[in-house]
Amino acid sequence: MSPRFLWFFLGAGLGAWWATNKKMNIDCHVHRMLPPAPTGPGEQMAPNSSQLPAQPMGYNRDWEQERARVREFSQTAGDTVAELSEATLNTILQATEALKAKMAEHRAIREEERRIEEERRRNPPRYV
Questions:
Q1: Can you say how many angstroms the Cα of residue 83 is from the centroid of all Cα atoms in its chain?
Q2: Is residue 35 within 8 Å of 51, Cβ to Cβ?
Q3: What are the residue boundaries of the structural domains of the chain, listed by start?
Q4: pLDDT tens digit string along 82-97?
Q5: What is the pLDDT of residue 29?
Q6: How far is C-alpha 34 from the geometric centre of its chain's CA atoms?
Q7: How much is the pLDDT for 125?
Q8: In sequence order, what are the beta bridge partners of 1?
Q9: Per residue in 49-80, pLDDT tens?
Q10: CA separation for the pair 105, 36 (Å, rounded)
Q11: How far is CA 66 from the centre of its chain?
């Protein structure tokens, strides 16, 4: 598999993830804008019910749990990105070092060939 295909699939995957994530965020914001209607005795109304929508009693707890879950997910994602970046940089560094060694080897071969050619020019073979 060539690197072009790898980058193509990586970009396509990230593009699909981004589009899905954006749609999910838009849907989530629409649902957050709609206040839940009080239906049972477990829910309480805000002190001034004409200005604030009704919210369940466990709303803050659920919100804190969601924030903690998102914070944990963000930390995990950040760590994963850092590890991938480090691995990528290590790979690039190793490839660069390998290319540098290969270039040094080819340079040494070229210099040896030039030296041999110079020797031949200085001391041409005698056919007599």
A1: 10
A2: no
A3: 72-123
A4: 999 999 999 999 999 9
A5: 59
A6: 34
A7: 80
A8: none
A9: 455 555 555 567 788 889 999 999 999 999 99
A10: 72
A11: 23
Q: Are 54 and 35 in contact (CB under 8 A)?
A: yes
How deeply is 51 buried, as exposed, middle or buried, from its count of CB atoms within 10 A (0-12, 13-18, 19+)?
Answer: exposed
Output the pTM of the full model: 0.41
Q: Tokens 């970009």 label which residue?
A: 11
Contact, 36 vs 56, CB < 8 A? yes
> What's the one-letter identity of residue 78?
G
The span from the CA of 17 to the CA of 23, in Å, is 10
- What pLDDT shows up at residue 126? 81
Between CA 68 and CA 37 the distance in angstroms is 26
Strand positions, DSSP E, the chain: 43-44, 55-56
Which stretches of 34-58 are DSSP H helices?
A: none
